[in-house]
TrEMBL record:
Keywords: ATP-binding, DNA-binding, Nucleotide-binding, Transcription, Transcription regulation. InterPro entries: AAA+_ATPase, AAA_lid_NorR, GAF, GAF-like_dom_sf, Homeodomain-like_sf, HTH_Fis, P-loop_NTPase, Sigma_54_int. It comes from Noviherbaspirillum aridicola. PANTHER family: TRANSCRIPTIONAL REGULATORY PROTEIN. It comes from the Bacteria. The keyword Transcription applies. This is Sigma-54-dependent Fis family transcriptional regulator.
Length: 644
């Protein structure tokens, strides 16, 4: 039986950042299949795995799993409906559909109950890791290692415990060609069907296309194909451009049709690729009934296209050319929701954009430091280049050097064969965002300083210095001056980094809470009618201290939206119990407001739920998502209050 679909097989020297074109995803020759599995087995042995060992049964705990889902929220949201559909197609075949993150940890699964129980025995469940390092040769891990769709059947699994499985997995790529996750169908080996791999590949591509559309919110997007009937199908090419017409990215079919790798396309524009000036596109869409565009690619190939103009603030077509002429304002302007402090800092940032002045963003966790860094990039002349974010606190100290500066072939034990370019080189021509810069070890600070002074990077184990041109944005929630005094941060590096220092205010200090909420609800509603927030709920929001700032608010609204239903009104009873408790505690601590008023709101929610459920405490508690005991606890003292 054929096993691993490796489009790149037999093509040594393939660039690891290259996204496989769709036509490459054919089943390879048996010899190539054997080679892929063999190499994967060699890697598995090198990881020190024992084929007879039991699978690793230490999946993530509930909180860690929730964090994993949160970190992969965009992927999760777009993959979920595709997974459900895929499951419907394979239901009853003793199998399951699995989604993992970029590292092979299972984020979500849906499947046939009987098989889920068996899968549980080999830790094929959310929170468990299926990278090759954890489980040896398996479709998920091998798809990540090889960046291609992989089918691993029965005895081809490295661990004997997994021999009863047949698994078909396809990597999911983002708009920068990075693997962001894997979609997999796993089943009992006798459930093998040769169409499963095709279904998985198509589903992965569907998720990629949706992710692509979600990323470019402030852009001109062309949907194109040489055959007009393919526009709107999985076969269409999609390419996005800044409002000024600079190339941003293309989906997998788009790259294939354009015939150039991403890096080369970044030097292009709408006119240079499609022979279409932005003004002509605007004119076309100002006509009463714009049909498909009939265009000629730079390669001479004729294509048909439909354009989507998703530009800032949803301007009318008559206003679009003006927007196209002033693209720099676009995404920074979107962050200006009415707070004077934020508006002031955005105006300062505007002045230094594109001028080679590093920006240092400070502020508590979740205040939007990374979002601001992205907006700076998006509005800069480097928008067509890469935006590379590095969280210095999240990388183990031993890896930070190779991660940032790259390494040459065989620089250290465990180094990948072809070496790695490192994040600084990856950001060439674009923006490097160093998050949590205060967590960078001192030795690395010295190296970074040298890179900034010399504008070259010398990878670990390498001799040649690589010239780099990056705009630098840093962020930290630490006080770097204190760190300098404690000799934990280099003063010379500090002065190199803080060209412009801006501080994002904590959410509790912002005067535009209602507008931030509106914006978040609008983003969540993705086109449908956004929900509203009742006055009572708003009163609670205003009293909360928001230690997690906008991230916490966004997450709370997401949960509340689910409770309130689409387009509904978010009321106190839709808010999680621990939030209500926190607000009461905040209020008691600060002494600002009347706890009695807050309790009254919570009480009204409970009383209403009780009325709606005919006085049945269990049913009302269930509807509110709180325990029966809490309900009794809350209702009893309040009912006694008048007599006490
Ligand atoms: N002005 C805003 N409008 C809408 N969403 C926002 C805004 N600011 C931040 N967010 C959202 O809040 C979340 C946290 O933002 P971000 O990651 O930029 O914060 P941060 O300050 O970098 O956090 P940390 O310090 O923990 O890394 C993200 O989901 C982001 O999209």
């Amino acid at each position: 039986m054929t096993q691993t679909a490796d489009p790149r097989a037999g093509k040594p020297g393939t660039d690891a950042s290259r996204v496989p074109a769709p036509q490459e995803c054919a089943v390879p020759e048996p010899a190539a299949i054997g080679r892929i599995i063999e190499q994967s087995w060699q890697r598995s042995a090198a990881y020190g795995l024992d084929a007879h060992s039991l699978p690793d049964f230490s999946p993530l705990g509930r909180a860690e799993l929730a964090l994993l889902v949160e970190r992969n929220r965009l992927l999760y949201r777009h993959a979920l409906p595709v997974m459900e559909t895929l499951h419907e197609q394979i239901a009853g075949t003793h199998s399951m559909v699995v989604l993992t993150d970029a590292g092979g940890t299972i984020v979500h699964s849906v499947g046939d109950d009987d098989f889920l129980r068996k899968a549980d025995r080999v830790a094929l469940r959310p929170g468990a890791g299926w990278s090759e390092q954890c489980k040896g040769t398996n479709a998920i891990g091998t798809a990540i290692a090889e960046r291609v769709p992989s089918l691993v059947h029965a005895g081809q699994h490295y661990l004997r415990a997994n021999h009863f499985l047949t698994c078909s997995a396809a990597p999911i790529f983002d708009h920068e060609g990075k693997v962001v996750g894997v979609l997999d169908v796993s089943g009992e080996q006798h459930s093998y069907h040769r169409h499963t791999m095709a279904l998985v590949r198509m589903s992965a591509q569907m998720i990629e296309n949706q992710l692509f559309s979600a990323v470019f919110q402030d852009a001109i997007t062309l949907h194109f194909h040489s055959r007009p009937e393919f526009i709107g199908t999985l076969m269409e090419g999609i390419a996005s451009f800044t409002p000024g017409g600079r190339f941003l990215s293309a989906n997998r079919n788009g790259l294939f049709q354009l015939g150039l790798p991403l890096a080369a396309l970044r030097a292009h524009s709408l006119p240079s690729l499609f022979g279409l000036p932005v003004s002509a596109l605007m004119d076309h869409y100002r006509s009463a009934a714009p049909g498909l565009l009939d265009l000629c690619l730079h390669s001479g190939v004729r294509v048909y296209a439909r354009a989507e103009l998703r530009l800032a603030n949803r301007l009318s077509p008559a206003e679009l050319p003006a927007a196209a002429a002033a693209p720099r304002m676009a995404s920074l302007r979107a962050l200006d929701t009415g707070d004077a402090q934020v508006a002031g800092l955005l105006a300062k940032v505007e002045k230094v954009i594109g001028r080679d002045i590093p920006v240092m963003i400070t502020g508590e966790t979740g205040t939007g430091k990374e979002l601001l860094a992205r907006a700076i990039h998006q509005d800069s002349p480097r928008a067509g280049g890469p935006f590379v974010a590095v969280n210095c606190a999240a990388i183990p100290e031993s890896l930070i050097e190779s991660e940032l500066f790259g390494y040459e072939d065989g620089a250290f034990t465990g180094a990948r064969k072809k070496g790695s370019a490192g994040k600084i080189v990856q950001a060439h021509g674009g923006t490097l965002f160093l998050d949590e810069i205060g967590d960078m070890p001192l030795a690395m600070q010295a190296r970074l300083l040298r890179v900034l002074q010399e504008r070259t990077v010398t990878p670990l184990g390498g001799r040649a210095a690589i010239p780099v041109d990056v705009a630098l944005v840093c962020a930290t929630h630490r006080n770097l001056r204190d760190m300098i005094a404690a000799r934990a941060f280099r003063e010379d590096l500090y002065y190199r980094l803080n060209g412009l220092v801006v501080k994002l205010p904590a959410l509790r200090d912002r005067r535009d809470l209602a507008q931030v909420i509106d914006r978040l609800l609008m983003l969540e509603s993705a086109g449908s009618r956004p929900a509203r927030v009742s006055e009572e709920a708003m009163a609670l929001f205003r009293r909360h201290a928001w230690p997690g700032n906008i991230r916490q608010l966004a997450s709370l609204l997401r949960t509340a939206l689910l409770m309130a239903g689409e387009g509904g009104e978010i009321r106190p009873e839709h808010l999680p119990e621990d939030f209500l408790e926190d607000v009461t505690a905040d209020t008691a601590q600060t002494g600002h407001a009347q706890p009695a008023g807050l309790q009254q709101i919570a009480l009204s929610a409970m009383e209403q739920a009780l009325r709606e459920h005919g006085g049945n405490v269990s049913a009302a508690a269930r509807a509110l998502g709180i325990s029966r005991n809490t309900m009794y606890r809350r209702l009893r003292p309040a009912q006694r209050t008048p007599r006490q």
